[in-house]
Amino acid sequence: MSTDSDIISRSRDSPSLFGVLFDRYASAIFRYAARRAGDFAADDVTSETFLVAWEQLDKYDLSRDDARPWLFGIANNLLRQHHRSEANVLKAAARAAGREAMADDSDRIAAEVDAQVAAGRIAQALKSMASIDRETLLLYAWADLTYEGIAQAMSVPVGTVRSRLNRARQILRTEFTLEQLSETETSHG
Description:
Elements: H1 4-11, H2 18-37, H3 39-55, H4 68-81, H5 83-98, H6 107-128, H7 131-141, H8 147-154, H9 158-188
């Protein structure tokens, strides 16, 4: 199996080979974009990612065998342009957390409500983060990139990735610790 850098190198002379790269990573880019900005933007972001990659083929560092960090970096930049969509998705999920569950005997409905509340709490925590920390966390969690891959995607040192992830994790810990304290005070108050 050819490495990504081999495919990119050969694509410069045989453009049809670039499709192999698309076949390998389009679904992962789509899933990441859909999680960040919704399905409506994911198609555009995915196709734009590969269009930009094609246009910047000569800028690719052929010493890097894995093109995922490069592609996710392009996708991340495009998603910044779609930040309004992302903000709307996070706002909607955060609003869902504030809704109270209707009384019902069904365990299924209770589980769904619990999941919505948890998703809303996570969305609220994500919304409260600096966008650069949120992007770093989502590249780690949703794109499944390593610290080194995130550093490549965001054009920053690995230490910066570690700092950003640490800040994001602290916000998540704080959000859930405060929520647990609030629940404890309410139940004991």
